[in-house]
Amino acid sequence: MQDIYSLEFWLPIFIILGVLVALVGGGVKIGKWIGEVNSNQENFKKFMTEVREDLKWIREKIFKITSLVATPNSPIRLTDLGHRVSNQVGGKEIAEKLADGIAKELWGLSAYEIQEFCFDYMDKIFIPNSEQEVSFKDCAYENGIDITEVRRAIAVELRDLVIKRLGAKE
Q1: Distance between CA atoms of 104 and 166, rounded to whole angstroms?
Q2: Which of 8-12, 23-27, 161-165 has the weakest average pLDDT?
Q3: Across the chain, how many H-helices and E-strands are there?
Q4: Is this structure's pTM higher than 0.70?
Q5: What whole-number distance in Å separates Cα of residue 140 and Cα of residue 147?
Q6: If DSSP codes are grouped into helix, strand and coil, which group holds residue 78?
Q7: Which among 130, 136, 128 has a CA at the least distance from the CA of 153?
Q8: Can you tell me the distance from the alpha carbon of 56 to that of 16, in angstroms, rounded to the nearest whole number?
Q9: What does the pLDDT look like over 134-166, one tens digit per residue?
Q10: How many CB atoms within 10 Å of residue 161?
Q11: Alpha carbons 50 and 124: distance in angstroms, whole number
């Protein structure tokens, strides 16, 4: 039997305790590190969402500047391609059907505000019927443009009609 006052008795106990303390401390450190990694992943996801939204906004602004169917100078006018696209899909007729209902809601707005509304309306609200949808896609394909350019040409036609009906300054 070993003497409890001897080093040989306490040494294995201290080694075991030391190993346990090191394991617990390492476990705590690993836990904190995992928490930081998860937190960083969440922050990274939030950051990427912000970047994605910013890029979407930039793309929209660039698209407005670099349209093939409309001029970039003010006021925006249809190019030759824009007139061809509008004629091909019946853009003036579509604008005629929409203008009366829209004009009432835009009374008192500036020409710029009317323009922004018309572009947003054609991009985000207007839902073409199945015949119009096919016509838009065919036109986009035949003219080598994106379908949003077809909608943009109609938006310019719509804007012009609404401004004319409201008597707003261009």
Answers
A1: 8
A2: 8-12
A3: 6, 0
A4: no
A5: 5
A6: strand
A7: 136
A8: 59
A9: 999 999 999 999 999 999 999 999 999 999 888
A10: 19
A11: 21
